[in-house]
């Protein structure tokens, strides 16, 4: 009787816990500002870093400045604006890249150097400050 | 001659625990300083766009240079067959690894982007002597560990000589590389000299041996183990030769520069200027780091262990001073871009006749923690494995003694 | 001469002469411009060594106290956007600076802008352990900040102190000029402009202000203005004895 009870509790935890865990909300990813991205969404999700890194070496070393994977274009199309109409920068959790990367807990250091909002849109952060 | 028996540090005496506590505290303080510097950025340090390498680099290069020289003691026993050095081989190799680890730790933690260390280990520009140094340092660790294993593992005893020769040659290349970091720089008047490489080699001999002698002078009485005069005298005399050799190289370097008119200004800056470098050069590098130790080593003063210990400490302080003059002094002297012209005004400091450097506490603490880490590795290593002979009494090590 | 009305296919002699003069005028005017605007290379093509970008700076026309080039560079690359608030003045980055010189023997005074000299044999490229400091095929020397570990060895090696280190976190970067804490940077010869057929902001500002002291162009093109000017009068490189063959040359020092 004791063992049957233990087995039942164990099964409930294992199966029931699974159901509970499966309901964790996914990341809220803001829509981009065009009909579609430069590649199908599923492909972008898998391969975007590979495309970004390859293109950056092409631009840096060879001066190739095609626009399909241009980082500037990604940023300008995927800009997220707050209620006041100002673009949010990488410090904000609503930033496009941040919305998924924070959820996935994958740190990126692109914005240590790169602007995270298009030039000309008002930047919500003040200069300097700690992360 | 009796067979040497090696022994770990026994027990957890109050002295040992106290030492570990102090070293641990300094190390933690250094790591805390690193967190502070990395988090805020280098604006919290004394370094700027004129003095780009500061206190951390002075200590790091000092430790790295000493590391290669610390292996000398083992090499003299293994490669050159001098019997009295043979019992000291294991400790010498351990010290070499420890000093290199401490120095590299300081160097790497001062990088602008230490998180990119993996990039430094995987993207190589083979024309860069710095890149070669990274390969040489890692190789040094590997070779010395193999050398140690062959010294300590009875079955491998037949192979320890080739390993020792390989280690000896490797570290000569390594130190040549370290000296060439400066020697290859055409831009600066104080560098750009072929003599930097051999001078660094001879500096490594002196600093490494000074560290070694210091450790046994303090460690053996501390552990209650006998330390005979023969060993001490042999090392003392050798250190004297190395210190004199360093002075000779410094003399040749400056004499050559003084002969060439184009170098007169930088020589005046270092030797007879009104900045701190002149004082550090003459008082700390030459007098305290060279002349006083030589007097101690070659007169009766050296018979007292305490005074001898002071002498070796002065050699080390002189070494840090020498690297301060080389690393910081070389950057403080302005670039000679327009010969015959005087720079009247510039927004980037070109008009200065000297670039001042005021080290912050954080970067100095980082440098000092490198020494603490090195000693910590030696002490903990000796607690775990038998690196140090149970006795260095004359009757146990002297090849000419009876018994 | 027959009277032709405007609806006919031919043109009048007056119209022909007018058009001819206009065309000739435009050709001459573009010929005397100081900046040879190169044919912008197609975006998908890699740069080649058939071109080498360089500048000639005529110090006789460079005025002491004028900072048009410096201000333009700071504006173009985002150095004047209020970043680097914690850095001391000696820690703040400078890509181009004005240097005023006086000959000790003769008293002759000269002013010139000093920036990365884009050497053909750059010491900074030789010493970089990761290869982050590199020279493009068209001669522009850059720092690949993706690979830069911030060791500052290139700053030790540069004979012109052209490089700066970023001492604190930056947040106000311009999208065409990424800059970040812990990496090294220097004048890029406005590579983002050059790649699309433009010229560096400093040279453009100098000309727009009417000083006309900076000529930019392709050193390998004998017909470019910079090449023609280099052929006309003698010029030198700073620290010529180092034999680095910089792409930036000076007249009058």
Task: Write up this protein.
Helices cover about 45% and strands about 0% of the residues of chain A. Chain A has about 130 residues and is mainly α. The termini of chain B are close together. Chain B contains 14 helices and three strands. Chain C is about 25% helix and about 15% strand. The relative contact order of chain C is 0.22. Mean pLDDT of chain C is about 90; it is low at about 1-5 and about 30-35. Chains B and C meet through helix 5, helix 6 and strand 2 of B and strand 2, strand 3, helix 3, helix 4 and strand 6 of C. Strand 2 (about 340-345) of chain B pairs antiparallel with strand 2 of chain C, so a sheet runs across the interface.
What distinguishing features does this structure have?
heterotrimer, B: 403 residues, mainly alpha, two-stranded antiparallel ribbon, 3 strands, 67% helix, 2% strand, globular, C: 253 residues, alpha+beta, 3-stranded mixed sheet, 9 strands
Question: What is the gyration radius of chain A calculated from CA atoms?
Answer: 21 Å
Assembly of the depicted chains:
heterotrimer
Low-confidence stretches of chain C: 1-7, 29-33
The proportion of residues forming helix of chain C, as a percent range, comes to: 10-25%
What number is the mean pLDDT of chain C?
Answer: 89
Q: What overall form of chain C do the CA principal axes indicate?
A: globular
What's the quick description here?
Chain B is mainly α. Chain B has helices at residues 14-40, 55-70, 72-78, 89-109, 117-122, 129-152, 160-183, 196-223, 229-259, 264-272, 276-298, 305-332, 361-384, 394-397; strands at residues 6-7, 341-346, 388-389.
Give the topology:
The complex is a heterotrimer of chains A (131), B (403) and C (253).
Chain A (H helix, E strand, L loop, with lengths): L1 H20 L19 H22 L8 H7 L18 H9 L5 H4 L18
Chain B lengths: L5 E2 L6 H27 L14 H16 L1 H7 L10 H21 L7 H6 L6 H24 L7 H24 L12 H28 L5 H31 L4 H9 L3 H23 L6 H28 L8 E6 L14 H24 L3 E2 L4 H4 L6
Antiparallel strand pairs in B: 1-3
Chain C lengths: L12 H19 L21 E6 L9 H10 L18 E8 L5 E7 L7 H5 L5 E3 L5 E3 L9 H5 L6 E2 L18 E2 L5 H4 L6 H8 L5 E5 L6 H8 L15 E4 L2
Parallel strand pairs in C: 1-9
Antiparallel strand pairs in C: 1-8, 2-3, 4-5, 6-7
Helix pairs in contact in C: 2-6
């Amino acid at each position: 009787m004791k063992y049957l009870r233990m087995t039942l509790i164990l099964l409930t935890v294992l199966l029931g816990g699974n159901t509970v865990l499966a309901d964790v909300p996914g990341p809220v990813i803001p829509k981009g500002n065009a009909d579609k991205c430069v590649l199908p969404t599923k492909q972008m999700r898998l391969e975007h870093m590979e495309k970004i890194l390859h293109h950056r070496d092409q631009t840096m070393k060879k001066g190739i400045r095609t626009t399909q994977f241009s980082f500037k274009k990604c940023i300008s199309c995927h800009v997220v604006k707050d209620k006041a109409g100002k673009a949010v920068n990488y410090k904000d959790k609503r930033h496009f890249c941040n919305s998924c990367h924070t959820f996935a807990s994958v740190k990126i250091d692109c914005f240590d150097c790169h602007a995270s909002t298009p030039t000309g849109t008002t930047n919500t952060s003040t200069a300097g400050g700690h992360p | 001659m009796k067979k040497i028996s090696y022994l770990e540090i026994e027990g957890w005496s109050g002295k040992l625990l106290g030492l570990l506590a102090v070293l641990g505290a300094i190390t933690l303080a250094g790591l805390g300083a690193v967190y502070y510097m990395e988090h805020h950025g280098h604006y919290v340090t004394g370094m700027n766009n004129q003095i780009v390498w500061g206190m951390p680099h002075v200590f790091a290069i000092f430790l790295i240079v000493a590391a290669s020289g610390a292996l000398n003691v083992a090499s003299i026993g293994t490669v050159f067959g001098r019997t009295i050095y043979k019992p000291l081989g294991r400790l010498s190799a351990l010290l070499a690894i420890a000093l290199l680890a401490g120095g590299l730790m300081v160097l790497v933690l001062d990088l602008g982007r230490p998180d990119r260390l993996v990039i430094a280990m995987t993207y190589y520009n083979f024309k860069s002597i710095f890149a070669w140094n990274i390969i040489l340092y890692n190789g040094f660790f590997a070779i010395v560990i193999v050398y140690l294993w062959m010294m300590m593992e009875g079955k491998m005893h037949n192979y320890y000589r080739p390993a020792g020769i390989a280690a000896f040659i490797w570290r000569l290349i390594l130190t040549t590389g370290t000296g060439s970091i400066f020697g290859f720089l055409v831009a600066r008047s104080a560098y750009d000299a072929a003599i930097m490489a051999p001078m660094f080699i001879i500096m490594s001999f002196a600093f490494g041996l000074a560290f070694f002698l210091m450790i046994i002078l303090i460690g053996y009485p501390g552990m209650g183990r006998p330390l005979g005069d023969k060993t001490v005298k042999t090392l003392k005399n050798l250190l004297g030769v190395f210190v004199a050799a360093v002075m000779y190289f410094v003399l040749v370097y400056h004499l050559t520069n003084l002969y060439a008119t184009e170098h007169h200004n930088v020589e005046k800056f270092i030797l007879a200027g009104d900045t701190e470098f002149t004082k550090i050069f003459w008082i700390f590098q030459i007098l305290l780091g060279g002349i006083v130790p030589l007097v101690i080593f070659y007169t009766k003063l050296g018979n007292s262990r305490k005074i001898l210990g002071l002498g070796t400490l002065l050699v080390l302080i002189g070494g840090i001073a020498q690297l301060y003059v080389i690393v910081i002094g070389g950057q403080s002297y302005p670039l000679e871009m327009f010969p015959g012209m005087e720079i009247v005004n510039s927004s980037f400091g070109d008009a200065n006749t000297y670039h001042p450097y005021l080290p912050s506490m954080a970067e100095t603490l980082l440098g000092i923690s490198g020494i603490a880490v090195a000693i910590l590795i030696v002490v903990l290593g000796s607690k775990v494995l038998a690196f140090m002979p149970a006795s260095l009494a004359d009757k146990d090590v002297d090849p000419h003694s009876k018994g | 001469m027959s009277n032709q009305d405007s609806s006919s296919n031919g043109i009048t002699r007056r119209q022909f002469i007018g058009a001819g003069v206009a065309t000739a005028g435009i050709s001459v005017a573009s010929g005397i411009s100081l900046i040879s605007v190169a044919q912008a290379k197609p975006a998908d093509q890699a740069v080649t060594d058939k071109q080498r970008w360089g500048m000639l700076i005529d110090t006789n026309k460079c005025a002491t106290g004028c900072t048009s080039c410096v201000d333009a560079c700071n504006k173009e690359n985002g150095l004047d956007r209020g970043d680097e608030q914690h850095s001391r003045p000696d820690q703040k980055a400078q890509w181009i600076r004005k240097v005023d010189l006086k000959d000790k023997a003769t008293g002759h005074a000269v002013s010139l802008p000093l920036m990365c000299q884009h050497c053909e044999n750059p010491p900074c490229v030789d010493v970089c352990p990761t290869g982050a400091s590199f020279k493009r095929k068209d001669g522009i020397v850059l720092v690949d900040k993706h690979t830069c570990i911030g060791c500052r060895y290139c700053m030790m090696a540069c004979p012109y102190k052209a490089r700066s280190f970023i001492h604190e976190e930056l947040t106000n970067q311009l999208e065409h000029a990424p800059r970040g804490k812990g990496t090294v940077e220097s004048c890029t010869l406005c590579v983002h402009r050059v790649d699309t057929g433009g010229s560096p902001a400093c040279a453009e500002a100098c000309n727009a202000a009417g000083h006309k002291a900076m000529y930019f162009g392709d050193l390998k093109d004998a017909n470019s203005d910079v090449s023609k000017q280099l052929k006309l009068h003698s010029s030198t490189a700073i620290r010529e004895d180092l034999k680095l063959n910089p792409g930036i040359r000076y007249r009058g020092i």
